[in-house]
Amino acid sequence: MNAAVLAAAVPARPVNGAALAVLIVIFVLVALMGFLAARWRVKPAERGLKSLDEWGLGGRGFGNWVTWFLLGGDLYTAYTFIAVPAAIWSTGAVTGFFAVPYTIVLYPIVFLLMARLWSVSHRHGFVTPADFVGGRYGSKALTTAVAVTGIVATMPYIALQLVGIKAVLEVLGLGNASNPFLADLPLIIAFVVLAAYTYTAGLRAPAMIAVVKDLLIYIVIIVAIIWLPSHLGGWGQIFDVAEKKMAVTNPATGNPVGSVIPGAASYSAYWTLALGSAMALFMYPHSITGVLATKSRNTIRRNAVVLPLYSVVLGLLALLGYVAIKAGTVPVGANGVINPQLVVPQLFLDNFPGWFAGIALAAIAVGALVPAAIMSIAASNLFTRNIYRDLIRPDATPAQEARVSKITSLVVKLGALVFVLAMDQSAAINMQLLGGIWILQTFPSIVAGLYTRWFHRRALLLGWAVGIGYGTIAAYNVINPATHAHFGGSIATIPFTNIPIYIAITAFAINAVVSVLFTLVFRAAKVKDGTDITTANDYGADEHDPKVAKVTAEEKLLEPAPEAPIL
Amino acid sequence: MSTSDAPTRGPARRLPYVVAGVLLAVAIVAPLLVPLYARTDPRLYGMPFFYWYQILSVFIEALILWAVYLIVTREDTRRRAAVRDLPPTRSADDATGVTS
Fold first, then answer.
1. Is B46 on the interface with A (CB under 8 A)?
2. Which segments cross the bilayer (chain B) (predicted)?
């Protein structure tokens, strides 16, 4: 590309002093809040956060407001804020703007499913989605499959948050140093501080920081979306210029670069990307952690009504991709090559005074710290509850669980850091793409279980395996037309047809069919099924309904031991 | 029978859940019907329909969910009150099979 060649002649970018100063001040304030959060709404007896309920779920007491900020920070990650406008800037609507219907369709699904998951988890003290699957199906294999899928899918997601911070630092002119260690030092410092306050304060740290991050994001977006278009000649002109860019023929494919309005051929890709991503998002452990940290059954439902406000912000932010085309933003990386992911940070730096650009960049960087913290906590909880406790130390005490989880959170973050520093950035993006396909394969086990116990545990495991197998192979076979690399995208045709759709949806359909068919087969063959420790009443329980552990303890005091097991 | 199986809610009435279910189905399906909104005109302040409609539909969606919330919580409150007046028995939730 000639643009890249042109860019290579540009000298190393200067450091913007004002923007950097604002970024550092906000980062230090946020770090202080992170450490202070260790004592936020903690009863004196609970100091030190010596159980997973306290460390990993913030005491299970977040109300409407905290949950709104926490989930907003958790779901709308910095990477989304970087990658969605980047996709719009490069290829237009289909690969980028689907994020808006995705985050619309998301909330009816959340409304439907998550109150039931909250209730059953409240009654039984479940901390992770795999805990629920274990309680419902009584299958160690299925529990482990769900837990491992969750951990593996979350790791690259954390790495991508680092990619988001890196984009901000790169635009600011850090990361140019010839010494690779010095170039990465700001990122390493940011992550060590993050790891330290997550270790100390657990989920309370991101919950508190999310408030700051969200307010910053809202201010920045409202200013940008009002000021930039009026400064650049209005939306009409912005879209005209964007249409011209998208109509240019891409030499690698012979087709136009992209489209501003999706053509009929990409309708199915557009809606399956939206639906598949929406179904997958609340299977991710970090989303479920946010749900289980709430105080009552209806907190998540009330939030499903007001969380879409963030989708408006996301939609406006996506449009900044087109704004950047009109503004002539040139996102050049530290290595002199065009990197679309730098487009939004660069747009702010070019068009606003240094201090305001600093606030915008800080909002993105802090926006990476919040989900990175929650994701590492969620992955650690999965490891602790469903691998350490279920498979290695069944008699682990709550204090031991909390200790293992805290240490695991450090390991998880270190892993993500190494991932980003040692490997090519595209490795993280490929893994994240696969992660989305994989995590959707836990949907039948988790969601069907909320409504019915009809499915056989072994059929669900088989469906999961087939779905993951198909999804991985299909994603591998997508070739990038420009670079000829594998994992070139997440769209493939449905087998035996020529309809291109999101691979995760095809894999999910195969998974569901296998689960149904083999449930029938295993039931007919009378293959032994696991025990279900939940009852119909658990799925409607609210905060004042007693927890099962408490009830059974009282029963033991009141009644003689029952002859048959209670459940 | 044991107290750990005491019902948390009384039996459900079908109508509120049917209405809520239909509204939720509309809320899920409508944003996925791409041909309905994949068009340029009418523009709003120069912005193609495709974009302003989808951003606007976020607000419509929020209103639908608010209505569903009111319907479901009202029925939920009634079901909870129904159990509190009765002595704990096993019958309620298991018998109906209707769930929210």
1. yes
2. 15-38, 50-72
**CA nearest A364: which of A232, A102, A197, A172?**
A172
The rounded distance, in Å, linking the Cα atoms of A42 and A52 is 14
- CB–CB contact B24 A115 (8 Å): no
Q: CA B91 to CA A153: how far, in whole Å?
A: 42
CA torsion B55→B60→B61→B66, rounded to 10°?
140
Q: What is the pLDDT of residues A494-517, one digit of tens each?
A: 888 888 899 999 999 999 999 999
For residue A96, being part of any structural domain is answered with: yes
Instruction: Check CB contact under 8 Å for B45 and A315.
Output: no
How far apart are the C-alpha atoms of A498 and A491, rounded to whole Å?
A: 12
Q: Which two tokens stand for residue A223?
A: 């200013």
Question: Distances in Å between the alpha carbon of A420 and those of A73, A154, A414, A474?
Answer: 22, 14, 10, 25
Q: Give the tens place of pLDDT for each residue, A423-459.
A: 777 777 778 888 999 999 999 999 999 999 999 999 9
Q: Is B28 on the interface with A (CB under 8 A)?
A: yes
Number of domains chain A contains:
1
**CATH number (domain holding residue A262):** 1.20.1730.10
**Cβ–Cβ gap A97/B51 under 8 Å:** yes
Amino acid at A411: V
Q: What is the mean pLDDT of residues A310-336?
A: 88
A531 within domain boundaries: no
| Closest Cβ–Cβ partner in B9, B33, B48 for A540 | B9
- Compute how many other C-beta atoms are within 10 angstroms of the C-beta atom of residue A419: 20
Cα A67 to Cα A126, A290, A524: the distances in Å are: 19, 7, 45
Backbone phi, psi, residue B8, to 5°: -90, -20
A315 → closest Cβ in B55, B61, B62? B55
CB burial string A197-236: b at 16+ within 10 A, e below: bbbbbbbbbbbbbbbbbbebbeebbeebbeebbeebeebe
Residues contacting residue A164 through CB under 8 Å, at least 6 positions apart: A77, A78, A79, A81, A82, A364, A365, A367, A368
Question: In terms of residue numbers, what domain contains A110?
Answer: 2-37+54-441
Q: Is residue A544 part of a domain?
A: no
Domain assignment present for A319: yes
Interatomic CA distance for residues A69 and A62, integer angstroms: 10
Quote ipTM for the complex: 0.85
DSSP state letters, B34-72: HHHH---PSPBTTB-HHHHHHHHHHHHHHHHHHHHHHHH
Tell me, yes or no, if A249 comes closer than 8 A to chain B by beta carbon.
Answer: no
* Rounded (10°) angle between helices A457-476 and A425-440: 150
- pLDDT tens sequence across A90-99: 888 888 899 9
